[in-house]
Fold:
Amino acid sequence: MVSDYDPLIIVNQKIRENDDSSQLQLKLDTKMLNTIFVQTEVESEIRKDHCEICQIRNVKFQGHHIGGWYNDFRQITVCIPCHEILTLWQKIDERVWMKDNHPYLKLAFFYKGLRDMLILLTQKRNNFQYMDIGNSLIDTIYYLERSSYN
Structure:
C-alpha cells in the first residue's frame, strides 16, 4: 500500500537510524582516543590483533609512536602500509622530531601525530568526523609550538 511509504515516516526513520549509528561510532571513537591518552608505557608495547587505522587483520603489525619515539611513549598498532604513511608524514614535517625538545614542543608533536592519525583514519574509513576532530587540534598545536620558543 502506498501509504506505507509516507516520506515523513520513512525519511525520519532513516534519520534516526543514521543518528543511532553516528552516536555508536562517536562512542567507539571516544573510547579509542581515551585509551591512547591514558596509556602506560607497558600498555604502549602491547600490539593489538588488527591495524587501528584500517582495521586489517592477519598481517604483520608494528607500533607507531604518535608523537615520535623520542617525544612520547604512546603508540597505536598499525599495519606496515599505514605505519609507512604516518612515519613519512612525521619525516616530511619541518619540525625536529628527534632531538631533546621543550615540553611544550613534545606535546605539540603528540597533537600533530594525533592529527595525522585522525586524517589517515578519515582516508581509510571514509569518516569525516575524524578530520573534523583532527583539524580542531591545529590551534592547540600552533599555540604549543609558539610557547616552546618563548
